[in-house]
Design brief:
The complex is a heterodimer of chains A (about 500) and B (about 1150).
Chain A: H1 2-18, H2 42-58, H3 60-68, E1 72-74, H4 77-84, H5 90-101, H6 106-118, H7 122-143, E2 146-147, E3 161-162, H8 164-184, H9 202-219, H10 221-224, H11 226-236, H12 248-252, E4 259-260, H13 273-280, E5 284-286, H14 288-296, H15 300-306, E6 307-308, E7 343-344, E8 357-359, H16 361-375, H17 382-391, H18 403-413, H19 419-427, E9 443-444, E10 450-451, H20 465-470
Antiparallel strand pairs in A: 1-5, 2-3, 4-8, 6-7, 9-10
Helix pairs in contact in A: 2-6, 2-7, 3-4, 6-7, 7-8, 7-9, 8-9, 9-11, 9-16, 11-16, 16-17, 16-18
Chain B: H1 2-20, E1 29-37, E2 47-50, E3 55-58, E4 64-69, E5 78-84, E6 91-96, E7 100-103, E8 106-108, E9 118-122, E10 125-128, E11 137-140, H2 141-146, H3 152-155, E12 163-167, E13 176-180, E14 194-197, E15 200-202, E16 230-236, H4 239-242, E17 253-258, E18 264-279, E19 337-350, E20 354-366, E21 375-388, E22 393-407, H5 419-422, H6 469-475, E23 478-496, E24 499-518, E25 530-554, E26 557-582, E27 593-595, E28 600-619, E29 623-634, E30 643-656, E31 664-678, E32 689-690, E33 709-710, E34 713-714, E35 717-718, E36 721-722, E37 730-743, E38 748-767, E39 776-799, E40 803-820, E41 831-832, E42 838-839, E43 842-847, E44 864-870, H7 890-894, E45 912-920, E46 926-936, E47 939-949, E48 952-955, H8 956-964, H9 982-989, E49 991-994, E50 1021-1024, H10 1026-1030, E51 1043-1045, E52 1048-1060, H11 1063-1069, E53 1073-1087, E54 1108-1109, E55 1116-1126
Parallel strand pairs in B: 1-7, 1-8, 14-17, 36-39, 48-54
Antiparallel strand pairs in B: 1-4, 2-3, 2-5, 5-6, 9-10, 11-16, 12-13, 14-15, 16-17, 18-19, 18-55, 19-20, 20-21, 21-22, 22-23, 23-24, 24-25, 25-26, 26-27, 26-28, 28-29, 29-30, 30-31, 31-37, 32-35, 33-34, 37-38, 38-39, 39-40, 40-46, 41-43, 42-43, 43-44, 44-45, 46-47, 47-52, 48-51, 49-50, 52-53, 53-55
Amino acid sequence: MKASILRFTGLAALTLSAAGCSGFLTGPKLTESPNAATSANGRQILVGVQAAAFLWQQSDIARNMSMMVQHLTGTNNQQLDRGSRYLYTESDVSGFFNQVYSFGGLVSIRAARDSGLAAGDRRLAGIARFYEALMVGTAASLWGDIPYSETLNPQVATPKLDNQVTEIYPRLQAVLDSAIADFAASSSAPLLAEDVVFNGNVDRWRRAAWSLKARYWMHLGEVQGTTAYQNALAATANGINEVPAAGDAGADMQGAGDFRTVHGTTQDVDANVWWQFINSRQDMTAGAPLVNILVARNDTVRLRRYFIPRNVTDPALRWRGDSIGGALRGATVSNPGANSIGQFGTTASRTAAFRQPILTWAETQLIRAEAENRLGVDDLGLGEVNAVRASVRLSPLSAPITLAQVQEEKYVAMYQNIEAFNDYKRNCFPALGTSTTPSGATVLFVGGGSRPSPTAIPRRLFYGFGERQTNPNIPRPNTAGNRVSDGNRNDPNACT
Amino acid sequence: MRLGGRVSALLALVGLAAFAAPAAAQDQARITGVVKGSEGFALSPATVRIEALALSANTRSDGSFVIVVPKDRSLGQRVSITARYVGHAAVTKSIELKPGEVFVDFVLSANPFEIGELVTTGGGTEAEFEKLGVERKSLDSLTIRNAGEKNVVQALAGKLPGVVVQQQSGEVGSSARIQIRGVRTLTQGNTQPLIVIDGVVSNNSTNITGSAVSSTASPNRLADLNPDDIESIEVLSGASSAAVYGSLAGNGVILITTKRGRSGTTNYSFRSNVQVDEAFQGVPTQRRFGVGTGGATPTCVPGGPASCALTAGFFSWGGAVPAGQATFDWSREIFGQGTSFDNTFQVSGGSERTSFFLSAGSTRQQGFVVGDQDFFNRTTIRANASHQMTNALKIGANIGYATSSQNAIGRGNNTNGLLLGALRTPANFNNFEPTAGLRQDAFGVTQSSWRFPNPTSGDVAANRFFDNPVWAIYNNPANQGADRIFGNLNLDWTPFSFLSVKYNLGGDFSAEDRLEARAQQASGTPRGGSLTRWQFNENIIDHQLNATAKWTMSENFAGSFQVGQQLYQRTFRQVFATGQTLITPQPFRLGNVATTPPSDDGEQMVRLEGYFAQAKFDIGKQLYLIGTIRNDGASTFGINNQRAWYPQASMAWNFRQGGAGGLLSYGKLRAAYGQSGQIPGAYQLQNFFLGGGNGNLADFNPGSSLNPAIGAIAGVRLAANRGNPNLRPERNEEISVGTDFAMLNDRVDLALTYYQINSSDVILGLARPATTGFTSVTTNSARIRNRGIEASINVRPIRTKDFSWEVGFNFARNRNRVLQLSADPADSGLRVVGFGPSFAGRSTNATVDTVDVYGQPLRGTISVIRGTDFARCGRGLTGAIPGQAAGVTYESVCAGAANNALIVGANGLPIADGTERTIGDPNADWTGGLRSTFSIRKFTISGFLDIRQGGSIQNMTRASMYQYGTHGDTDGGGDVNNATTPAAIQAARGITRTFGQNGFFTTLPNGQPAPAPVGPGAGTSVVLGEAWFGGNGGIGGPAAQFQEDGSFVRLREVSIAYLWDSRWLQRSIGLSSVEFRAAGRNLWLSTNYTGFDPETNLGGGAVGNTGFDWFVYPVAKSFIFSVALNR
């Protein structure tokens, strides 16, 4: 009997212990992650937004746009495929397209903006608006019609494409106007450490916003003509106005008012992205058109700041690098016999912490110059061009200045900047040879059929693969609306 | 030194054994006899046991046994004595104990299914074979041991139908992956079965460092288990058998039981194993042409300008190698011979109430890479003990400890590793010469590589582009160390005769520590060397309690009822720190670097609480029904879906049993239905702000990453994936039907099973338009179906007194189909990207494609290979064909042409088509294993053929070697002796071919015959050379041309063993037997695959897919010699 009681007690105890305990499955470390935050304030998010924007403006797309305008030439691996054979697929750009909107893109930008507005910090809201305009505008210039008005809307599962010319650019001008109003209502004190570009200086931010407005008006030059140039000219009056020191700082566009990226020095972490690439890969060299122009105009400061000279005494060969071996390499050079071009390098000047110029005083001056020249007003841009020339210690040009001279000045100044591609589409300057492909090769697009070879320089990018797969509003690659040979709405005229 | 240690250990053992030899006593009972099969063949080692006295003995090779009963117990009582032998029915006899000789012989009849023996079925449940409503898949200790594998997972390869094992490569310490009945989940790395050791859920993680496609080999944690310690393995294939594990059993369960002691004589065994490994085979290479381009050799070659670098023209498309200059086959010469030594010492025994098993094992393995830098060492200790405290209560403990250390050489896509550099090295560059055996020390050794051949002492930080692979072996270490303790405490209580309670509290604690370093002169970025440290801790606590009540209504109606509870917790912690730019060449420590990029850490905790009930009914001694229901809650289930139910039911009808003789001696029909689940991963319920690196710009190149931290200013951004608070477990619903037959007097046994598994609620990060703000949302969205057939047949055609022969064959085919990735029709084009390695546009994915690019039905759609192909007719291509004369369109060329006809341009070369499609399926059509054993007196000869039919491999190694001009196919073999100009040299190398003729492009990449090519250049012969292989004919061209058939027939094991157990041995040395065994593994392989081996797999155990070859190591060919001393 006693034994039975013990047995029953034992069984009862086991039954009770098996009943489990409440809270076994929920709580910290269980249903709540110990590894990541679920909320953050606007200033913290702003840092993430800036890192994403800096990466976007310097990474793969910037490299490829530099190869499209032949500032640089791809010699190996993907750079050969993309930059010289224009084999640049919807998969290659998918991550970039996504990050206009997700991650450090629009979704984080809006979170920073809303956080700023909620806290009454209009300066933070203004900065966020500037980044919104920068990201969406750069994307619209490359892809044309993109989703914008319906994005980030929980009610819309598949945002529609907005008209690049009639919807997106006007909206971005309004966003920038709001930013300018935000800056006007704010003061530069206290400093804002999370704003690594201008440290909370609202005056510089306001001028940068005006310069960005001017850039976007220029994007409409082909379709709106005079109106666009007049608007651009007007905007530049309030644009970036701090002149960098003449010489190296001028060539590198390191003016205090210039919108430039900020970097640490660690590969794959926070270093200048161009440097990260060239520090690891040697798949690009200088583009012959750029080198040829710089050599012809004796633009020695830029040559020295852009490229590494060869260790040869012959000045004609100094800027020309190793042979890169035959037509197979796809290089387009003005002197095919020599078939040798300068070594692209950043170790000389564009080092790990180099602040990449994105939107600058020089660009503002040259927008002004182009607008004056096209409108036939003032000195046709001579003063602005000569101001930029003075910043790189070049002698002034004399009147009258031609549009081609203005365009050349901008082509050499916009080195490594995505905007150079937009300039090329509008100006078709300089005359660029098209790619040659190795015998038997076909220029092709993963996910998008093929295209004749040799081929013209692409006029837009494919939409990202990820978006195309999930959003039925995106046309299939190589169909109307998503052909790289078609111009965007703001680019009706092809360069021949 | 090693040898000395082994010899002294042997001597010590022999001395111990001799000392322990029992002295004869006069008044004891000596029970002797012979155990034979019904055909007269001696059964050895059969166990003969007197349960009441806790005495037992094993039979010798002649079937004889001796049990000595001490005088004080030989008092004329009658006891039962039982003889057992694997695959035979046990026989019990009654004998009277009296002083002197007692003779008792046994004749055991074959019982191939071990009817009547208890089979572990998981969760503390067990059932006799005849009551199982599902197939039984098991391996015994001998089969596991004789496989001779260090990693028990690899020992399963080919042995059981439907259990597919794929090893990563022949590298020491690399992982192996198990998959049962196809992939049922889309979560990479979650495709492997649950491992349960002695009733406790156990850790079999493969923790990769860096990337699954580069970095170094890492073992799966089951490598911590000494295969010699395993008594048996039972495999529960799926939901119909594993519902008792609920949400943990989605991929099946592998139940491992370790050896335990039995009361009786103390047994000792010592086994020593020597193994020699070689790389199985090389790949074709060319050795006539050296570095350069266009047939010309650059000046920057060994002996050329100091500090010169080849930044272009570094492929092996240069001049002919001068006569007399040494050349190398880098696919072979980078490998040498590996040796390994395994020693295991085991003691087991016990008294009437207490039993124990002790085991100590040591493995010292040296890999086959040249030099002595790749090794894997493991020491294991295991102690199992149990004690019967009262007649109702038994307690036990079971503890294993393992410590291992390893050094690996970089693999896969790794410029600091072995094969990426080696297979791209020109044949006439000597990787051994400047650096062999030299480790970079404080004085610095100047590394020369083929692209940087003449370094000077000032070139420490100069880029070598690819590390010289021999230098890399010695200078870029990847150390790993792991310690693990795992085991359980168990309690077996029978409070009432009808009720038993079992409790099992298990723990599994492992800590891994790694260092991966690149020396100062290593290539790549950051320059100046770097090191990375990882620590992983994974702990599992598993509590299982169950109670079983048995009842008997009548002889024909009985059963049991069982309830159980499981509480499970898994915690995982990871710390990562890295340093760049070494200050002094050594040591590789975080204190010796100039910069330390941000470190990282993380942890996970997952808990599960499950209850189950199981009822069994035995009706009329021939019909057996089992029903189970399990309810689970888990911390990773959505807040709104915290519980899940899993039912299971099975039926076994033994329509014939025990019939002696005749055609059919045993027959069973079985059917089962069940559900099991797959627990979601941790922390998928919420949206997060992230501070880490920039993950998904989808760019292959460096310069794609910026942390949201600029100097000291750090920030966050929203994760691109949206969490889902409604997440449910993935659910597998399985039906299986089958039959087991024993025929022809038990000479033939046959098992057949058909199954279908419908997986629903499969979790994936469902891609959403990024324009919504998130690129994916974690969702229960996909449906996957696997169905297949499994069969095994064993035949014993000869079984005589002196000779026996057994043949076994197993066969399995599985058809996998992704039925749906998303229920939303808008997602029709969706595919899951990144299920495995991806390079340069070739990716392995899950898709909903139902046909491949050739119009063939897709056999498997998980981990298909996607990529591009050459343009072919019938694929919807329209418009002008690029590069052809005006008016030449796809429509005009293909008019009247067969589908899949290759379109050849005017120049005789095919046209690339950029459309990405499904180009291959790495899943096998079927797998099989053929096993045969001959026993001739004391010799046993056995062999095992492992067969895989179908399943393609994307051989990107070949594609890359084409581009680099190092592959054998890039040399047409023309005469170069009289070629003086680069153009002439290049011409001599050219390969004249006509597309679609003489075996060149005459089959489709899927192996089907290709129709005749069409197009303006069809039939035009072309000379293929650098331009072709550097363009469309190499890695830059369509991926489909590098699809290869991965079928193979492999002599997985062959062995001859001799058992020496003469009475002299026992009398003089005190050993009961000595077994000598010589074995070979992977000695022969038949395959059409042109790479190292169709079995290797870039991702290893860490990823869910197979079929990708990118500079993966070959498989080892091994010769094994072993001696086992038993007492």
